């Protein structure tokens, strides 16, 4: 008798385990219907139309938009969403068996309603980068209800038309701040107003001498960018050029003064970190005579100077990552002081 009871208990326990395991495994559950397939979401003027391939062992269907149940007990493989959003949203369709069991998996597609005729989109909200990246300026935005794309302007010039997305990278951005405008666009036209923000890329390198104390001497091999950064920028000098106050360019307080000497700016010790062009700019002044600008990537150029600041710039050819470049500046050796300021390198994307 005891043996019989133990065997019965064992049999019932094993049966429960087997049945429970079958119900948890979709491959062994005869109650679950097959997964719907072929879901297509088509936009209309104010609605979204869904259609899918009928499931033979399903008695009805369930439709989910995003995370919201919007229809159940559908008996035909189609549905019209009259309250569809105007932004791209995922739709899911589940099959339901006669006993109320839902399919383990679902058919999926995304869609949105078309914008009603004559309705222009709303302008977005924009933010542009502030010069922290020397490679480019990134513009991001949000909003723009009823928009299907965006037009982007830099300082009044169209730089991207019918752009799809909410972030744009301007590889041709200048180093000085400019206005970026973003208009929202749909089939009815562009928004009547725009979102705007000021933005720019940063310099690859710039030295204004403002962080140096008055009287600081720029000795040979003075590093301005530590090679630990992956590349090095340094000065080689002759004649002990010194930082002085009261001579800065356009309101800055300091400049570099050289008498019967020279200065060379080198991008070396790793070279250029990325491929592209590099533009070197420099402000110089000297009451008499002038300067020789001697880059290692092109011929020497003569700059005639005056007691007013003169701008000089020169651009490398397209160079590969790791390439080195430098420029030597030699004022006339006549005993008159020469002044340098805002020695900068700008990266230009290929």
Question: How many structural domains in the coordinates?
Answer: 4
Q: What top-tier CATH class of the largest domain fits best?
A: Mainly Beta
Gap between N and C termini: 90 Å
Q: Which topology of the largest domain does CATH recognise?
A: Jelly Rolls
Helix content: under 10%
Which percent range describes the beta-strand content?
over 45%
Put simply, the count of helices is 1
Give me the secondary-structure category: mainly beta
Radius of gyration: 35 Å
Output the helix-strand order.
HEEEEEEEEEEEEEEEEEEEEEEEEEEE
CATH architecture of the largest domain: Sandwich
Q: Sketch the major β-sheet.
A: 6 strands, antiparallel
**Contiguous runs where pLDDT drops below 50 for at least 5 residues:** 1-23
Indicate the overall shape.
Answer: elongated
Global mean pLDDT: 90
CATH superfamily membership of the largest domain: Galactose-binding domain-like
Number of strands: 27
Tell me about this structure.
It comes from Chryseolinea soli. This is Fibronectin type III domain-containing protein. InterPro entries: FN3_dom, FN3_sf, Ig-like_fold. Residues 33-102, 120-191 form the Fibronectin type-III domain. Helix content is 7%, strand content 46%. By secondary structure, the chain is mainly β. It folds into four domains: 1-30; 32-111, Sandwich (Immunoglobulin-like); 124-199, Sandwich (Immunoglobulin-like), CATH 2.60.40; 205-348, Galactose-binding domain-like (Jelly Rolls), CATH 2.60.120. Strands 16, 19, 20, 22, 25 and 27 form a six-stranded antiparallel sheet that branches. Strands 17-18-21-26-23-24 form a six-stranded antiparallel sheet, with no helix packed on it. Strand 8 and strand 9 (137-143) form a beta hairpin. The longest helix has 23 residues, at 2-24.
